[in-house]
Amino acid sequence: MIAVVDTLAVPASHSPATSLRRKPLNALTGARFLAAFYVVLYHFASRPASEHRLPEALICFLQNGYMGVPFFFLLSGFVLAYSYSGDTGRSKSPFSFWAARIARVYPVYLLSLALNWPFRNDGPWHIVLSKGAMAATAAAVQTWNPHYFYLAQAWNPPAWTLSVEAFFYLCFPFVLPFCTRMRTRQRLSAMAALVLVIVFCHTALPVDHLQGIFRSILVALPIPVVRLPEFLLGILIGQHYLEKQPSSVSGRALLSLAATIVILCTLHGHWLTLSVLPLAVLIYELAAGGGLIGRWLSNRVLVFLGGASYAVYLLQFPVRNWVRVAFERWNPRGASLGAVVSPLLLILIACAVFEWYEEPSRRLIRGWLTPRKSQA
Fold it and tell me: In terms of C-beta distances under 8 Å and separation of at least 24 residues, what long-range contacts does 336-343 make, across chains too?
């Protein structure tokens, strides 16, 4: 899922009468697009890469593209902690927070479902969705019941991560105060414990990628609960960042990125969860600036694409399905060309959706749901 947050700015001073607004995390915004497009390549390109016998490391990298999702869950926790901890001028009311989240994520979510309506029964389980299943998906709670785990892929398959995020948003106003009260040593111990859970219990992997005892335990739990350690780790990293205010060290960002890429290019199976550790370090370092990498990710084009990355992620299946239908009707032999066109068309459509639908809808819905004094 794409971590979706409002852009913040920080004034030069802070006084009791003036609430603090923090600087934009432009490097992380740019990284969001690359991570979203990595997931898109996983869906669009991993199979063709294998069929055309491309280099093994590249095939491995593309087949591991689903590991972009843990990055988004970590980033979601980090940025929400960064945005809402302390005196940021944001309402501490859970209802104001939930209203802001609904305004931010729901318009594009509903658009993705509407566009994929004709293909809603084409998921990997090949089931005809009941009215209840469609209602659960429309309400973004399709992953909350472990007895119907196959609904995670219903209607618009990538939308399962939004259902997980909805659970995170429900918990966040109650989790954040507990995290802010932690002392440094307690926070570091909790972060270490969460990393161990994620890595050694393999909770950052899809359940259908697991075997043995881990599968039997995790499949019995709601998916949002299984993925909660990633979100909590992100919150604690965000709190640690706010306390330490680290300076940018280019070497650490580069090293963590290199370690992530090496893992994704070489490992298969359970131990892919090792990538969570360098990903967590990378988020921390990019927030601090990230040196040369951070400056590159902060360029205006990538920051704009980062804003559109939520639409890139959610619209990938609708765009792919409609392009496939169009090419089949135009030229049945042009399916391979459609596979090439789809990612490029997806980016263009996502940018248009971000500029002319997502942002205006967010402002409109927040105006309906949030009192004026809470929008300051």
Answer: 339/44, 339/48, 342/44, 343/37, 343/40, 343/41, 343/44
**DSSP symbols for 298-322:** TSHHHHHHHHHHHHHHHTHHHHHHH
Is 174 exposed, middle or buried, given 0-12, 13-18 or 19+ CB atoms closer than 10 A? exposed
For 204, phi and psi rounded to 5 degrees? -85, 0
State which residues form the domain around 339. Answer: 26-374
Q: Tokens 């070489």, residue?
A: 266
The answer to whether 138 and 113 are in contact (CB under 8 A) is yes
296 SS3 class: helix
| Residues making up the chain, counted from first to last | 376
Q: Spell out the per-residue pLDDT of the chain, length 376, in tens.
A: 555 555 443 333 333 334 467 889 999 999 999 999 999 999 989 988 888 889 999 999 999 999 999 999 999 999 999 999 986 667 778 999 999 999 999 999 999 999 999 998 876 656 778 899 999 999 999 999 998 888 888 899 999 999 999 999 999 999 999 999 999 999 999 999 999 999 999 999 988 788 788 888 888 899 999 999 999 999 999 999 999 988 776 689 999 999 999 999 999 888 999 999 999 999 999 999 999 999 999 999 999 999 999 999 999 999 999 998 888 887 766 666 777 789 999 999 999 999 999 999 999 998 888 665 444 3
CB atoms within 10 A of CB 114: 10
Within a domain: 6: no
Domain count, the chain: 1
Residue 14 lies in a domain: no
Residues 6+ apart with CB under 8 A from 372: none
Beta carbons of 283 and 77 less than 8 angstroms apart:
no
Token digits of residue 89: 């001028």
CB 217 within 8 A of CB 210: no
